[in-house]
Amino acid sequence: MALVIDLKPGEKILIGNAVITNDSQRTRLHISGDTPILREKDVMKEEDADTPCKKIYLLAQCMYMADDPKQYFTKYFELQREVQHAAPRLSLFFLSMNEKIMAGNYYKAMKEGKELIKLEKELVDHATG
Length: 129
Known about the structure:
Elements: E1 3-7, E2 12-15, E3 18-21, E4 27-31, E5 37-39, H1 52-65, H2 73-86, H3 91-102, H4 106-128
Antiparallel strand pairs: 1-4, 2-3, 2-5
Helix pairs in contact: 1-2, 1-4, 3-4
């Protein structure tokens, strides 16, 4: 079954190593295959990964897009342990995310990473508020 993606005018999408930019009209794409696909709104740029949880999301994104995802495991698990040590409340969350990573479900791990970023913001806001 093909993935159907609607693109707004000017919206970008990554398909494998290619960046595709939509023209001036809405476009609907039907994509089949196993190539990693990311919408522009889901892409974390390295310079935007300015918190520990955003860095974890970036590493999950790198795993998803990489030919050899395991090259990011050491860095990911080291950072994950540091964050979990600082915020033990996130232990069950990381258990779920780690299971997805170990199973090779990197896109699902990225979705969990987005939730992790929201939780991080709530923790920081609560601590400073």
